[in-house]
Design a protein that fits this description.
The chain is α/β, with parallel strands linked by helices. The chain is built from eleven helices and ten strands. The strands form two sheets. Strands 1, 3, 4, 6, 7, 8, 9 and 10 form an eight-stranded mixed β-sheet that branches. Strands 2-5 form a two-stranded antiparallel ribbon. Strand 7 and strand 8 form a beta hairpin.
Amino acid sequence: MLYILSPAKALDYETALPTERSTEPLFVDDAAELIEVLRTKTPQEVAELMDISDALAALNVARFQAWQPVFTPENSRAAIFAFNGDVYEGLDVRSLSDAQWDWLQAHVCILSGLYGVLRPFDRMQPYRLEMGTRLATSRGNNLYQFWGTRIAQYLDERACADDGIIVHLASEEYFKAVDRRVLHAQVVQCVFEERRGSGYKVVSFLAKRARGLMTRWAALHRVQDVEALKRFDSEGYRYAPEVSTPQRLVFRREARN
C-alpha cells in the first residue's frame, strides 16, 4: 500500500533534526523549470498569483531566488521534518523509531506543487507553491497541466510494485494532480468525520490531523491491507461500514470534551 499525503503551508527549518538521513528529490529538473518561471515574478505578482500577503510574497520571492538544484544540509532538510501543519502534528514523526522511518520512506509519498512527489526523507528547500496555483508555464496554464501524467505514473509504478493499492490521504486540491486515467492501482480514499449535533461532518483541520494519525498508525502497525486499515482507532475514530464503500472508507468519532 502506498499512502499519499498533502504538504503543509507551515514549514520548520529551525528545530534541530533528530537524524541526518536524507535522500535526493525525484523531480529536480522539473522543480528547477518551475523556479525559473517563478523568478520572473515580482513580489506583487507573486502576492496576486498565490493570494498571499505582501510580506509572504517577499519571503517567497527570496526563497525562489535562493533555490539551488543541489541540495545540501545547509539549504534543505528532509520533507518529513520540514512540513509543520496539522497532518504532520498528527504524524508526530520525531517520536517514531528508525525502523518506522524506514517504513514511511517505503510506503508514503507527499504531493508537492514544486517538487511533484516527495518521499518522506527527500531533501527540500523552503518554498510555497500550492498545487492549485494558476502558474502558466510552457506546459500549460496551471500546475495540473505542468505535471500532467508524471505524478500518476510514478505513484502507479510504486503502488503496483507492491499490492496495487493507493491510500488517498491527501486533499482534493492535491490529489487532483494524480491523473486517475493512467492508474492501474486501486485508489482507496479515507474520510474522517466528527459528530456535530445529530449528524457527522468533515471538519477541515481535524480531518488533516486524522490523516497524519492514520499514517502514524499504519507505520506503527505496518498496515498492508485494507481490512487492517479499517481497524484504525486513534483518538476515538472508528470505521463506519454503514456509510463506507470499497473505494471510500469513512471513519467517525463522537464529540470530544
